[in-house]
Structures are given as structure tokens and as C-alpha cells.
Design a protein that fits this description.
Substrate Binding Domain Of DNAk, Chain A, domain 1; five-stranded mixed sheet; globular
Length: 156
């Protein structure tokens, strides 16, 4: 039976419509800064060794992110998520941290997703339509309007 191993609630500043999730082994990341993502693209726009770049529906605001590590492929989450995407990423340390483009890492800290190696990552999101509408109306977007759920499990 697949079980939740660890979870962490975090948040990060979206800048230029993107934020990243990077392995602590930054030296092993071929492109250490977000590249190729833009506001309104697919949620996971760029995947490279040791990094995932996520796009947001709006340019500059704080999003809520829940990180989870699972013992196997996780079940569908509860709640009203508007979309999901699954990708695979190689992590050389198995410990990740959220990053903003210019403001650096999350203040919450690091999150252990498991052993080093290839991991499946399934991302769910909600609140994108609301964030986009507020952005277009040039309104302040309250923290957590847009939410992401990121679940990891080993790909071996």
C-alpha cells in the first residue's frame, strides 16, 4: 500500500510568472536559473536534472506549495484541483528547496523527497483562473490564491 512518507507546507514568491524547485546539489544542475518558462504556459514548463520550473497564471505574487514524498504512486488528492501534470526528474541529493527567481530560496527550508535518483513528480494546481483575473485587472493577488500540490515518488 502506498503511504505518505513526509509533507511540508511552504510558499514562494512568483517572479516573472515562474518559480523553481531545485535539488540542494546546485552544482549538478546544468541550468541553475529558470529558463524557458513564461506566464500562462504549462505548469511544469522546464524539467532538467536537479530542477523543475513551475509557471503561474500571474506574474508577481505569493503562491502556496505543499510538498509530499510518497512510498509509491500517490492517490488522487482530495479537493477541487483544476489540473495536474506528471513529469520525471533526476535528483542527485534527493533534497529539494523552493526558489524564487531573484529572492532566492524559501525561508521554510529544505524537503527530503527520498534517495538520490530519478523521481516521478505529479503536480496539481488550483486558483489559477482567479490569479489570472486579478493580474489582468491589476489587482493585488492575496497570498495563497494560487496553490500547488507537488507529490514525489521514486521512479525505480
Amino acid at each position: 500500500m502506498t503511504e505518505l512518507v513526509a509533507a511540508q507546507d511552504d510558499g514562494i514568491l512568483v517572479e516573472y510568472g515562474i518559480f523553481g524547485l531545485m535539488d540542494l546539489d546546485v552544482e549538478a544542475c546544468p541550468r541553475p536559473f529558470p529558463d524557458g518558462a513564461s506566464c500562462g504556459d504549462e505548469v511544469v514548463a522546464v524539467v532538467c536534472d536537479n530542477r523543475l520550473d513551475f509557471t503561474s497564471a500571474a506574474l508577481d505574487h505569493d503562491v502556496s506549495v505543499r510538498l509530499e514524498a510518497w512510498s509509491g504512486e500517490p492517490p488522487e488528492p482530495d479537493g477541487d484541483w483544476s489540473g495536474s501534470e506528471t513529469v520525471s526528474v533526476r535528483l542527485s541529493s534527493g533534497v529539494v528547496q523552493l526558489w524564487s527567481v531573484t529572492m532566492g530560496p524559501s525561508r521554510i527550508g529544505t524537503f527530503a523527497v527520498g534517495d538520490a535518483g530519478r523521481h516521478q513528480v505529479r503536480v496539481w494546481w488550483q486558483g489559477a483562473d482567479e490569479a489570472a483575473a486579478m493580474h489582468m485587472a491589476e489587482q493585488q493577488i492575496p497570498r495563497g490564491t494560487e496553490e500547488f500540490l507537488v507529490r514525489f515518488w521514486s521512479d525505480c
